[in-house]
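Example record

The entry below shows one chain as it appears in the dataset: sequence first, then structure tokens.
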Amino acid sequence: MRGTLAELEAVVTVAAKGGFRAAARELGISSSALSQQIAALEARLGVRLFNRTTRSVTLSSAGEQFVAEITPALTAIRNAIDLTDEHRSEPSGLLRINTSVGAARMVLAPLALEYLRRYPRMQLEIVTEGALVDINAQGFDAGIRILEAVPPDMISVPINRLIRPAIVGSPAYFSTRPRPKTPADLETHRCIRARMASGTIYRWEFERRGDAFTMDVPGNLILDESDLILRAAREGAGLAYLSEWQLGEDLAAGRLIRVLEDWTAPYPGLCLYYPGRRHIPAKLRAFVEVVREMRWD
């Protein structure tokens, strides 16, 4: 009647992911193997843990109770395994971090690659998503987001103190248009607008001498990825609102021209964050150390 640890992990993962395909990717096995694990456990227990249709997989009432009971035990087992890792000469295993695409580009070289150089027995998985997720429920060790997006119940470690936005356009774009001197001038310009993960259109943020406001800028091109916005700006499609970090080479080479610089104030930068628990696994503590040593402003 007992389930193996792999079967119990399979049930919890399918419940968290809401389906066999996503859970199988998470666990690194095939969907058929995962289905067989759960079917074998259900057969021994004599109850159905999941209600399956062609469109969805949901927990049965028995499954809900089962997951609620085994989740704390599985967490305790994972913590016990983490504690044994303290006796290793160096961290090993898999560290999973959730972040956005833009943040991943910023931290890959200075942090992630340095971490793997120092700890070659570690595996590091960085998963990028536009929307903020519950890192606990989704099986991540930590997340990296801008400070204002970090959940209040998490421990946060600053990576960079400030991120500076910039409004840019190409020389070709400005060859037929005057450069805007105030945000109000944008009403006569084409702007490349950004669709956020929430589905809303990003309102450009402005601040000068304590005067702060947002603006729904005009434009006939809407994109949902910053690299695409940057490429469109280079091609003269319109003005773009991007991170200064992303624009360094283009500004230096003259491929893009910055405008309204005195209206774009910096905002709090990226943070590494993780659950506030008593025991922090060695693999995560080692990453925190790298963040603190490599932090840039």
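Notes for this example: Residues 251 and 257 are 6 Å apart (CA to CA). The radius of gyration is 24 Å.
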